[in-house]
Amino acid sequence: MPTEGPGARTSPRTSGWTTLAMLRALSLKAWDSGALLRELLEPTGAYPRRRPLKRPTAAGLRTDYAAAHAWASELFVAAGRYTLETADVGRTTIGSNRLPAAAVFESVDDEIAFVGKTRNAARFRELADELSALDPALRQWAWKRPLQLLALEEAALTAGRVALWLLSTPAPGIYVRQLSLPGVHTKFLETHRRVVDEMAAALQAIMPSEPTAEEQTDAVLGNAEPGDAVLGNAAARTPAGRFAERHGFIHPPELVRFRMLDPEIPLLGDARDVTVTADAFRTLRLPVRTVVVTENLVNFLALPERPGALALFGAGYGFSALRDAAWLQDCEVLYWGDLDTHGFRILDQLRAAHPHVGSVLMDRATLLEHRDAWGSEPTPATAALTRLTAEESELYQSLADGEFGSAVRLEQELIGWDWALARLLPRGN
What we know:
The structure is a single chain. The protein is α/β, with parallel strands linked by helices. The chain has helices at residues 20-32, 35-41, 58-63, 65-78, 108-114, 118-134, 138-144, 146-152, 154-168, 186-203, 213-221, 239-247, 278-282, 297-302, 341-353, 364-369, 390-401, 417-424; strands at 49-52, 83-89, 97-105, 255-260, 273-277, 290-294, 309-313, 332-336, 358-359, 375-376, 408-409. The chain has 18 helices and eleven strands. Helix 6 runs antiparallel to helix 7, helix 6 (118-134) packs across helix 8 (146-152) and helix 6 (118-134) runs parallel beside helix 9 (154-168). The protein is elongated, with a radius of gyration of 32 Å.
C-alpha cells in the first residue's frame, strides 16, 4: 500500500486499529511508569522491543480502503525512531496490500526519542551518575524513583549527602536545625524527609516499600503511623518527630495546654490557661476531680467554671502526652470529640492508656438532635475498636456502615451550647 503525506487523516472506522497516537501513548505510559528510565540504568534485554499493531483485515480494506490507506500512511511516514514490520493483507480478495504489523524500537533511546524525552533522559543519566558518585548504593534509589529524581534535580543530590551524613553520624544528639550541610535547612528536611529516609535505607540495602493508603492518609492528617500506639511516644507524634526519633536527633518537647476551671485552685498567680511540656504535665499534682478533654479550641476556652475541674486541650490523635500522666487515674476523665468514626477511634486509643475515660456528647441522642448540622467525614475510619462501650460501639458501627447517610459527622463545635452544657455540667454542679 503506497504512502501519503503526513497530513493524512484517519476515519472513525479506524478505532479498532493501532494509530500513531495510540502507539505513542503506549510508549508514554512506559515513560510515565519509569520503565524506560530504569531500562537506561539496568538493561533487561527487552530491546529491540516489538510493539504489535492492530491493523485492518481484508474485510476492513474492502469496507473503507481510503481510511486504511491513510492509517498505514501515517505510520510509514512517522517511521524513523522505529521500524515497521509489515504483513500482506487481502492477496486473495482485493489484491495484495502491505500493512504495518508491528513497530520495532531498536533501543530504549529510540523509544525515548519517539516520545520526545531525549533531553530528560540525558539529565536523568547525569543525576544518576552524580548520585552513584556519592555512593554506588544510591543508584538503587535512582532506579526505584527515576521520575522523582528528575523532578528533584539538585535536591536529590543534597538529600543523598544528608543520608550519607546520617549513616556516618548515628544518633547525632542535636536538633535538625543544627545540621550544617550545604543547602540543608529545616525547610529542606520538612519537604524531603521521605527521600532522605529512602536514601538512608538504600545505603543500608533496605529500600522501604510504597506507603499504604492508610499511611498516606495518616501522613496528610498528621496522625501516628499505622501500627504505632498513638499514645506510645510523645516526641514521635508528628512526621518531623518521627524523623528525628529515627535518626537520633533531639526534637522539641510536646506541649500540653490546660485551663483550671476551679477558681479556688491556685496555679501561677492569676494564670488559669497554662501550657507546659508533656514531662511537666506528667508530674503535676493538682487537687482536681474531673478532667474534660476537648479538641475544639473555642469549646476549651468557653467551658465555664466548675469546682475541682480542669479542661485539657487535645489535638486529634495527639494525646501521647497523657500516656505517663498517672495522676489522671485518680480523676474522672471525660473525652468530648467529634461525633464521627475518627472521634471514636481517638477515644478508643485514649483508653489504651486510661481505660476509665468516659465519653460525653458522643451519643446517638446528640447526633440525632443536630441533624441540621451534619457534615461529611473526608476519610472515615474502618478499624475494629475494642475499647468502646456497647453503646459507643453500636453508634461507631452505625456511622461506619452509613446508617445515617454516607460518612456522616457532627463536629463538636456545631452542637448547641445549651445542649452541651446540660451534659457537661449536670445538675448539682
